């Protein structure tokens, strides 16, 4: 599971860098300031959670079962939160109406918050002397 989490973290981080550069250079010319700010928010939160998953995949503070819960909760959150933001921010240039995804963004946010809460709860439950 650790390997899977670290690989996912690396892929999410890589995609964040690519999308951030794409937003800063190519999209800057075609998006409004508000759309670009939204897009950058999606990139930023994806990178935060790539680093979060890197920690989860390498820490000794969590059991394998706890890592699995945190991993899937965070990954679902990134897909729903950042993914919906990317699609909503670029819908004018894609000519696809993604407005139906509006409610998905906060649901993704709840998953991201939950992944941090799960991390805190599981670390607190550990009976270590460190």
UniProtKB/TrEMBL annotation:
The keyword Translocase does not apply. It is found in: Membrane. Keywords: Membrane, Transmembrane, Transmembrane helix. The chain crosses the membrane at residues 45-62, 69-88, 100-124. The keyword Membrane applies. It is a multi-pass membrane protein. Its main location: membrane. Belongs to the UPF0382 family. PANTHER family: TRANSMEMBRANE PROTEIN 256 (PTHR43461:SF1). This is DUF423 domain-containing protein. It comes from Paenimyroides ceti.
